[in-house]
TrEMBL record:
Domain of life of the source: Eukaryota
Source lineage: Eukaryota, Viridiplantae, Streptophyta, Embryophyta, Tracheophyta
Record's subcellular location: Membrane
GO cellular component, one term: membrane
Keywords: Membrane, Transmembrane, Transmembrane helix
Family annotation (PANTHER family): SOLUTE CARRIER FAMILY 35
The protein's name in its UniProt record: UDP-galactose transporter 2
């Protein structure tokens, strides 16, 4: 029975990762074609449309009875939406104000920041092998993605906001699911409407500030609209798979294994958009990153590889604790 449960969990874990990788890489490729081919450069507004589509999906699922009612306190929801929106806007502004190399370094910084949050807030302890595997992943991705690096004060500020807000948002996904016993569908049904409304309200102004173009003045042709619809449809899976993966694992694991998406995007880019930029350093970086990801998976799964103390979902009543009761504390 134990072996069967372990096999089932492993199969579901792999399915969750594959779901996230396929949808994430798919939306990147669709958005790249949408922006490069049709000039639709309104990233914040497009993200608002993504969450609006996700909101419609959650409403339909609730109406069909496939998502059970749940509760999330409004203060928690507001904090999550603020972190999530700061993450989206911060990453867009960071990309505009920084060089591509520094932007890639910014994305890599999310792993150590996520580790720090888990150490401080969840009292997580990492083994030496787990720490070393994370370093190998960081070095590998840096070698194959970081090129020109130029730094300026406002770019550093935008990058700092992007890194911390993204790390907090991803930590919060895991925290809220565990604290309030929410499924991925439940949490998404609570957060998507707030993100959709706020991003659709702020998005056009943010995009005009970043691109000096108005989203309502864009030449919406049939092919471009079809790409927008495709992007929104895939985004539903991307948003859901992110919540599933972080809920099943952690923000750090999501960041580490998630860099596999970066490697796949590079490979697909070289395959479909030309081999310019493909050299020994890029190949070496890819190999190092993959080795680090496999090492991290093995190291963190071993006893003592990554240990955390669970926080209670429900407050316990004040009563004497017997020795038999003390053994019933759940370990995560």
């Amino acid at each position: 029975m134990t072996s069967s449960k372990a096999d089932r969990k492993a199969a579901l874990d792999v399915a969750a990762w594959m779901f996230n990788i396929v949808t994430s890489v798919g939306i990147i490729m669709v958005n790249k074609a949408l922006m490069a081919t049709y000039g639709f450069s309104f990233a914040t507004s497009l993200t608002g449309l993504h969450f609006a589509t996700t909101t419609i999906m959650t409403i339909v699922l609730r109406w069909l009875g496939l998502v059970q009612p749940s509760h999330l306190p409004v203060p928690e929801l507001i904090k999550f939406v603020i972190c999530a929106n700061l993450s989206i806007v911060g990453m867009n502004v960071s990309l505009m104000w920084n060089s591509v190399g520094f932007y890639q370094i910014t994305k890599l910084c999310m792993i150590p920041v996520s580790c720090l949050l888990e150490v401080l807030l969840d009292k997580v302890r990492y083994s030496r092998d787990t720490k070393l595997s994370i370093v190998v992943v960081l070095v590998g991705v840096a070698v194959c993605t970081v090129t020109d690096v130029s730094v300026n004060a406002r770019g550093v500020l935008a990058a700092t906001i992007a890194v911390w807000s993204t790390s907090l948002q991803q930590y919060y996904v895991h925290f809220l699911q565990r604290k309030y016993s929410l499924t991925s569908f439940n949490l998404l049904s609570h957060t998507a409407p707030g993100q959709a409304a706020s991003l659709l309200l702020v998005g056009p102004f943010m995009d005009f500030w970043l691109t000096s173009k108005r989203v309502d003045a864009f030449n919406y042709t049939v092919p471009s609209v079809l790409f927008i619809i495709s992007s929104c449809s895939i985004a539903v899976g991307t948003n859901l798979s992110q919540f599933i993966c972080i809920g099943r694992f952690s923000a750090v694991s999501f960041q580490v294994i998630g860099h596999m998406k970066t490697i796949l995007v590079l490979i697909l880019g070289f395959t479909f958009f030309g081999k310019e930029g493909l050299n020994f350093h890029v190949v070496l970086g890819m190999i190092l990153a993959v080795i680090g990801m496999v090492w991290y998976g093995n190291a963190s799964a071993k006893p003592g590889g990554k240990e955390r103390r669970s926080y209670p979902v429900v407050e316990r009543l004040q009563k004497p604790v017997s020795s038999s009761d003390s053994k019933a504390v759940e370990e995560v």
